[in-house]
Every structure is written in C-alpha cells, then in structure tokens.
C-alpha cells in the first residue's frame, strides 16, 4: 500500500472512530429517554457501537496512528426530551455512522473493505428499525439531503457529532 493510500485509509478509520465515539455518547442519551419498550434495542446498539469503536481504535494503532479520542460531550442535533425524539436521534446516529463507513469502504480494500461494508450495512439496518423506513443507498443517498435533514452533512468530521 502506498503512503498516500495508507494515509487515506487512516483518515477514514479515524473518521469512523470519531463517529463511533459520538454514537456511543448519543446512545447514552437515547437509552435515557427511549422508553422501556425499546430499551433493549438501544442497549444492543450501544454495545455494537462500543465494539465498533474498540475495533477501529485497534486498526488505527495497527497502522501506526494514535486513535482519535472521544469528546467529553457532543452537541445533539435537536432536543431529546421524550421517547419519540430519542428514536429520531437513534436513526440520525445510524445515518451518520453509515456515512463515515461508506468513506471507509471507498478508501479500503480486502478484509478492511468487507468489514467496513458490514458495519455500513449494520448501521443501515439499525436506522431502518428505528425509523421504520429505508433509503435506497445507505451512507450515500443521505449526503444529497439539504443541511439540517438526516445525514445532510457530506464531511466525515461533521458526521462524528450526534
């Protein structure tokens, strides 16, 4: 792998790691507001994002990078004061995670690309479960949405904020 390709993979890994940090934080908020009927689903997603975060941190270290640290807090895209808002936040978190994993798919090859595609698929499936509907191309279609709508940001860094 060339130095340029390696740097691109490392940037995409770091962006995915930042998004996973934000998702872990966001699911803490979701879990506190989602309501008893969907609490198990929120816990499962929280655990999946913690696992993804840990795996990405290992991959960054394996490439010789220093894993990006989690922020102490993240600005939420809207107030989460009831179960309906918690469900909307969960879907938004998954959209944003799918966005950065699509970048990692594009930057990677081999096993890493397969793992990134799997993570993108898992985020898309969770988003469908939360939202109750899907998009044609998870991680890509949302990027064409106007700012302020789900997944409307095209930059991986912006996607890291819940």
Keywords:
162 residues, 5 helices, elongated
Summarize the SSE layout with pairings.
Blueprint: H1 3-33, H2 39-62, H3 83-107, H4 110-131, H5 156-159
Helix pairs in contact: 1-2, 1-3, 3-4
What is the CA-based Rg, rounded?
Answer: 15 Å
Shape: elongated
**Helix-strand makeup class:** mainly alpha
Distance between the termini: 33 Å
Give, in order, the helices and strands.
Answer: HHHHH
Fraction in helix: 55-70%
DSSP E strands, number: 0
Q: Largest sheet, described in full?
A: none
Tell me, rounded to a whole number, the average pLDDT. Answer: 87
Q: Beta-strand level of the residues, as a percent range?
A: under 5%
Textual characterization of the structure:
The chain is mainly alpha-helical and 162 residues long. The protein is built from five helices and no strands. It has helices at residues 3-33, 39-62, 83-107, 110-131, 156-159. Helix 1 runs antiparallel to helix 3. The longest helix is centred in the N-terminal third of the chain and has 31 residues, at 3-33. It starts with a helix and ends with a helix.
Short structural description:
The protein has 162 residues and is mainly alpha-helical. The chain contains five helices and no strands.
């Amino acid at each position: 792998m060339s130095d340029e390709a390696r740097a691109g993979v490392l940037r995409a890994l770091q962006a995915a790691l930042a998004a996973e940090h934000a998702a872990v934080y966001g699911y803490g908020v979701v879990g506190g507001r989602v309501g008893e009927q969907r609490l198990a689903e929120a816990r499962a997603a929280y655990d999946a994002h913690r696992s993804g975060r840990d795996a990405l941190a290992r991959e960054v270290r394996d490439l010789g990078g220093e894993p990006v640290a989690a922020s102490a807090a993240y600005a939420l895209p809207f107030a989460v004061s009831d179960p309906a808002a918690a469900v909307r936040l969960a879907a938004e978190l998954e959209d944003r995670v799918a966005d950065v994993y699509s970048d990692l798919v594009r930057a990677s090859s081999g096993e890493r690309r397969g793992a990134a595609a799997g993570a993108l698929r898992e985020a898309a499936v969770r988003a469908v479960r939360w939202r109750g509907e899907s998009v044609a191309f998870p991680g890509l279609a949302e990027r064409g949405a106007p700012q302020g709508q789900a997944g409307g940001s095209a930059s991986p860094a912006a996607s890291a904020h819940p």
